[in-house]
Design a protein that fits this description.
Elements: H1 3-12, H2 21-31, H3 34-42, H4 45-52, H5 58-82, H6 84-89, H7 105-126, H8 129-150, H9 157-161, H10 163-177, H11 182-205, H12 207-213, H13 218-221, H14 224-243, H15 245-248, H16 253-275, H17 279-305
Helix pairs in contact: 3-5, 4-10, 4-17, 5-7, 5-8, 5-10, 7-8, 8-10, 10-11, 11-14, 11-17, 14-16, 16-17
């Protein structure tokens, strides 16, 4: 079904009038999905502060930020290469560099692979082998398990595939301690349980896009009512998981208060979406979910510093 789109895409990517250097560099940057990278790094640095019980080495933080950005950018680039035909069918993604022909597909693939090679080498040299291996494992999981296997086949794609986006919490902890402790796994679980509610809200907004591309996202397969119930359920699980951090490590009142207040706000927003499942409210919930996760992880760092 997608072969005609692939042929059109390859035709678009045939070199023609050379683009400016700035435009080409900008297109490569867009392939890495910088906004996604920002969120992933937010979940990597606070676990470092918690593991160190203070401010970690600046060079180590730089290693995790740069290495994590390279790995995530490489994974996102390879994802764009794999999904270039489906992206052309969706309004939300048809303007990406591969569907528009700004970058030759083979060049994008090489770029994505090189970013991950650089990420592994840098994290191994500047942090440790465990942190580097976890970062690359996340890329492999995201590319082969989520993008290639789960996403086009099952409505549970983002539930299982969300594990890839939760790995930065483990990378940050491993960079400081050389192992993965129980608190890191709790923070991993926070991101893992948060991901379905976050992404399904976006899928509600772009339900027609996913249907056109033949991607079995929950709103397409099960409908709006089921999706909003699942979002509310996962929001509640996420809040409970944030509070479990105090069971496995010492946290103070700053974190507990922040987790409780932010959690209540998150759940109330999910309930409002359940009552009014409009695309407008869905995208507001999606935006709020980003802010919620960032503030919860910020509270982890602030509490550890205090």
């Amino acid at each position: 079904m997608l072969q005609p789109a692939r042929r059109r895409l390859d035709a678009l990517a045939t070199p023609g009038v050379p683009a400016s250097v700035g435009a080409t560099l900008g297109a490569y940057v867009r392939l890495t999905k910088p906004r996604v990278i920002e969120l992933l790094l937010v979940t990597a640095v606070p676990p470092m502060v918690l593991a160190a019980r203070g401010v970690p080495s600046g060079w180590l933080v730089l290693a995790v930020v740069v290495g994590g950005a390279l790995a995530a950018g490489g994974a996102n680039t390879i994802n764009c290469w794999i999904e270039r035909d489906r992206d052309q069918l969706m309004r939300r993604t048809h303007g990406r560099p591969l569907p528009t022909g700004e970058i030759v597909p083979s060049h994008a693939l090489v770029f994505g692979v090189l970013l991950n090679v650089a990420a592994f080498a840098y994290l191994w040299a500047a942090a440790n082998l465990l942190a580097a291996s976890l970062a690359i494992a996340a890329t492999l999981f995201y590319v082969f398990v989520y993008t290639v296997w789960l996403k086009p086949r099952t409505v549970q794609n983002i539930v299982i595939g969300g594990a890839a986006g939760a790995v930065p919490a483990l990378v940050g902890w491993a960079a400081v301690t050389g192992r993965v402790g129980a608190p890191a796994w709790v923070l991993f679980a926070v991101v893992f349980s948060w991901t379905p509610a976050h992404f399904w809200a976006l899928a509600m907004k772009y339900r027609d896009d996913y249907a056109a591309a033949g991607i079995p996202m929950l709103p397409v397969v099960a409908g709006t009512r089921t999706t909003t119930r699942q979002i509310a359920g996962y929001a509640a699980v996420t809040v409970v998981t944030t509070l479990l951090l105090g069971v496995f490590t010492r946290v103070g009142p700053v974190y507990l208060a922040a987790a409780a207040v932010l959690g209540a706000t998150f759940v109330v927003a999910a309930i409002r979406l359940l009552r009014d499942p409009s695309p407008q409210r869905a995208i507001r919930f999606f935006t709020l979910s980003n802010l919620y996760l960032m503030l919860v992880f910020a509270a982890v760092a602030v509490d550890a510093l205090l």
